[in-house]
Amino acid sequence: MINADAHAILDRRSKLFLIILAVITAWVVFANAVIPESSQFHVSNGSVVLYGKYLTYALLALSIDLIWGYCGILSLGHGAFFALGGYAMGMYLMRQIGTRGVYGHPVLPDFMVFLNWRELPWAWVGFDWFIYAAIMVFLVPGLLAFVFGWFAFRSRVTGVYLSIITQAMTYALLLAFFRNDMGFGGNNGLTDFKDILGFSVQASGTRLTLFTLSALALAACFVLCRIMVASTYGKILVAIRDAESRTRFLGYRVEHHKLLVFTVSAMMAGLAGALYVPQVGIINPSEFSPANSIEAVIWVAVGGRGTLIGAVVGALSVNAMKTAFTTGVLAPYWLFVLGAIFILVTLALPKGIMGLVDRLMAAWKARTRPVAPPQPETGA
Amino acid sequence: MTRADPNQVTPSILYLDGIEVSFDGYRALRGLSLTLDKGELRAIIGPNGAGKTTMMDIVTGKTRPDRGTALFAGSVDLTKLDESEIAELGIGRKFQKPTVFESQSVADNVLLALSGPRGPWSALFGLRSRVDVDRIDAVLAKVRLLEMRDSLAGALSHGQKQWLEIAMLLAQNPKLLLVDEPVAGMTDAETETTAALLREINAEHTIVVVEHDMDFVRMLGCRVTCLHEGAVLAEGALDAVSADPRVIEVYLGR
Ligand SMILES: Nc1ncnc2c1ncn2[C@@H]1O[C@H](COP(=O)(O)OP(=O)(O)OP(=O)(O)O)[C@@H](O)[C@H]1O
Ligand SMILES: [Mg+2]
What spacing in Å lies between the alpha carbon of B91 and ligand 1's midpoint? Predict the structure, then answer.
């Protein structure tokens, strides 16, 4: 039994969001699979992959908004959990290559043969089973978040100090994964994937399925986030965000509450990474780069912190813009554009796109109801 | 000068002895000793900077004393526990500067304070009962905030926030209530209501009230302790304390 009313979990806006997500997903599937290529409404395979990638970014943004928007934990290292989930999936995909590698080794992936390794490192054992890899997608980011959070929250590291150590965490992982002797493919990472659960990763059917799964994962995680924030637990999170020490004086062990939401959020980021890798076809250490994590936080800020939907809207719109810019002549200036967007949003739209939507809706309501009966006068 | 007698440890709900605290060399508490009997209502007065709030910080675990003993219910060493553990023991606090959860509704503020399990799992999966809603409304009715139950706490006036904090204390149902300057910013009528409310709460709870408003302290009609420079200057009935020449000199006579 969940400690919240069903209609509080799925309020009108959440329902609308899920419906729009479903309609767009269905449209992309239809336009790719049914509408002929000659039609201008056809969605190409390349676009399906691109949209699928956006959806996994949206899921990463959602996981950040859950902790930042509702509990005030500003993680600038969430890209690390995304990348770990991605590596777990990538390791499964590497094992699926089997003997089809360049060296045709019966067990070892190409890069290990290249390094003259004799046997599979212990960390790789089990990754030929999809179920095992799927568990690791959640377990590895979750465990790291749990251990990291255990120490950070118990020592009451908050605010900018917490943000800095999350940056340090992802940077440390970046350096570690760059090393060949870590056994995760060094700076080339993992790539040249062949198939997933027996289906070719290049096949358009597989791509469409992965895209749809990304949309489903986003919807499911959105509902999970709504359950968390609409229950009494969500009220405790907001209390911690707004007045952490007051919450302690009410008897709440703030570190336990933070630890739960942080771990759940890291697992969501891991899932996003796991869906990302088979679609883009590669995972390498640059996914751990601190700048990636910061960019994801900017998506949330642009969309509107503490709204969940805003995180998705922000991730999709900033990435659509990024694609538009980086494929044109303005490509070298993308980071300046991103910085400018961020400054503009924080100055002009402190509540992001969702805040703007709220303002517009309030203005529209006020305009459509000008002849509402006047307030009954009190007194003479 | 009442120096707490160790023999009295058992019946007292709060026992402070020889508490010393320094902030960057400034000695805020200088051997503060104070005992409080179960069921007592105690007013604490004293000039600004006397250490009244710091005393509450010690009891609630916000500040650790450099030296001294702080016992709750005769045996629990408060200096070894953190804020949430102390709150779970049954010590509630209203802050000098009202601190409510401004972005949440008045009813949700009380809900968060409501006594009950405090872990994340029960907050996620526990059953929310009709009884809780009734308890919240009963508490809000007591502090006259029932009509405001769905407004944001941030929208309340200063005085209403004070009452909301008292409502949260009631919902928490602690054994010992520490109430820091509850009537600051209240009208005379509101002050009277607050005094009556605290006396009513005192029927079931032990209360310590810090207040500068001497009319209010008189309305409480209880034992008074005057702090000065981090130690007890005088203690007793209000008339006796306010007639004490030292109290007049440092506090009342200004
Ligand atoms: N955290 C702190 N850091 C530094 N100094 C502090 C701290 N807390 C209190 N003090 C100092 O300790 C002294 C006692 O402060 P305290 O707040 O206990 O006084 P008070 O009796 O509550 O006064 P008031 O009536 O003004 O509320 C003051 O001089 C104050 O500046
Ligand atoms: Mg004070």
Answer: 21
